[in-house]
Amino acid sequence: MCSNAALSTNQQLIQPSSTNSIRTFGPPHDSIDIVSYCTAAGVCCRFSGALCGLVYIFMLPCVVYLAIRRQQATLTVPVVCVHVVIVILGALNFIAQFLIPSS
């Protein structure tokens, strides 16, 4: 059996200290770092959601579709204009996230 003195010493070693914190990096820890600097997690989610929406919902399908149409030599000016407008709407959505005040 261990004594109470040894147990209390071990507990003191395990407890984190603000002066002895070890910084680790990587995907799980990056989000913790972001939340520690920006305490309103909803704001971070709003910005990252708008950026992901811009890339994955607005830009990527349009660019892939336009690339396929170009390879098939069926790309026309109206098709390009419509898809550029879609990407512009996505960019406006992203920019609007910075203009809308958080509650």
Features:
103 residues, mainly alpha, 74% helix, elongated, disordered N terminus
What Rg, in angstroms, do the CA atoms define? Answer: 25 Å
Shape: elongated
Helix content: over 70%
Overall pLDDT level: 75
**Proportion of residues in β-strands:** under 5%
Instruction: Kindly report how far apart the N and C termini lie.
Output: 55 Å
For the sheet with most strands, the description reads: none
How is the quaternary structure best described?
A: single chain
Question: Mind explaining what this structure looks like?
Answer:
The protein has helices at residues 4-14, 27-37, 41-71, 77-99. By secondary structure, the chain is mainly α. The protein has one domain. The longest helix has 31 residues, at 41-71. The N and C termini lie far apart (55 Å).
Question: What's this, in brief?
Answer:
This protein has 103 residues and is mainly α. Helices cover 74% and strands 0% of the residues.
Please give the structural blueprint:
Elements: H1 4-14, H2 27-37, H3 41-71, H4 77-99
Helix pairs in contact: 3-4
